[in-house]
């Protein structure tokens, strides 16, 4: 049986029920809207990304943002509610690496890229968002280096998406 995904309205009820702060909800909405625009453009060019899954996972990906290891807590919440696909996306979203050596992209690829292009509740693009993150880890060489590699991979991922859709991601926003 196919996994049923919570509707937009149900996601908002869940965010409220789990006391997700308003600024985090606004972030989740912007990440979701960004992801849906990118996925929609890809779907218009032959991809088959599940927009219902992407919307649900995007809206609740930070449901437990105020908790320590929020990705694990959020995944447990989604799993307990029977939203297993969303739970897996929430579980990995903080440390996920997109494989840029193929173009068989999945919803998690689009969600994570979108999360890396939204600062608070605004689409700002990869460079602006990640420079903010790099600044936070400038005194931790190991993490800083890992983030720089991730940024490089995401630049390439963006280039590949833009090549496929024949437009810049910025122009979609």
Summary, kept brief:
The protein has 173 residues and is mainly α.
Structure explained in plain terms:
By secondary structure, the chain is mainly α. About 65% of the residues lie in helices and about 0% in strands. The protein has a single domain (about 10-170), classed as Hypothetical protein af1432 (Orthogonal Bundle). It has a two-stranded antiparallel sheet. The longest helix is centred in the last third of the chain and has 25 residues, at about 140-165. It is globular and about 40 Å long. It starts with 7 loop residues before the first helix and ends with a helix.
- Name the helicity range: 55-70%
Low-confidence segments: none
Radius of gyration: 16 Å
What is the number of domains? 1
CATH architecture: Orthogonal Bundle
Give the SSE order as H and E letters.
HHHHHHEEHHH
What is the global morphology? Answer: globular
Q: Give the terminus-to-terminus CA distance.
A: 35 Å
| Average pLDDT figure | 95
CATH names the topology as Hypothetical protein af1432
User: In terms of structural class, how would the helical and strand content be classed?
Assistant: mainly alpha
Total count of strands: 2
- Report strand %: under 5%
CATH class: Mainly Alpha
Tally of separate helices: 9
Largest sheet: 2 strands, antiparallel
- Main sheet: which strands, in order across? 1-2
